[in-house]
Amino acid sequence: MAKTNSVENFLISLRHRGAKFADDFERDAWLEAVARTRWIANPQLLDVTDAERPAWRTRVRELLRASDFPPVSVVRAAGMLGDPEAVVLLAPYLVRGGLTKSDEAVPDSVDALRREATGTALAKQAALALGRIGTDPAVALLWETLAR
């Protein structure tokens, strides 16, 4: 039984805390908390983390699917959690974050530049996430993108 205010209780509480977010700050704080569980080394805490990780991964995949252009923090968390089921969801963001518009009337407009910066950040985090996931499909996708 975990003690009140223990690390175990905090890890267990993350499932409930990730169900709904009041704002982007709360969402990003939750994503960072679950992502950092990657570095837990204490065997007792690893057991709790291993038991909770599937629920965290499921929630991050839900967040990836919730938007055509998810926040960079969601893409990062998918990689930090090493979620092999997220590979297909990350693929569209490898090239400019999927935000390039070839038919742009004014390619140097503020909107176009903002989209390019956001797309570059998404692409960078998608590549890092796939590298962290490290499965054969994730690595193959990275090589395929480099070959283009």
Please tag this protein with its features.
148 residues; mainly alpha
Number of helices in the DSSP assignment:
7
Question: How many domains comprise the coordinates?
Answer: 1
* Distance between the ends: 53 Å
Outline: globular
How is the quaternary structure best described? Answer: single chain
SSE layout and pairings?
Blueprint: H1 7-17, H2 24-36, H3 43-65, H4 72-80, H5 87-90, H6 110-133, H7 136-147
Helix pairs in contact: 1-3, 2-4, 3-4, 4-6, 6-7
Description:
With 148 residues, the protein is mainly alpha-helical. The protein has one domain. It has helices at residues 7-17, 24-36, 43-65, 72-80, 87-90, 110-133, 136-147. The mean pLDDT is 88.
Concise account of the structure shown:
The chain contains seven helices and no strands.
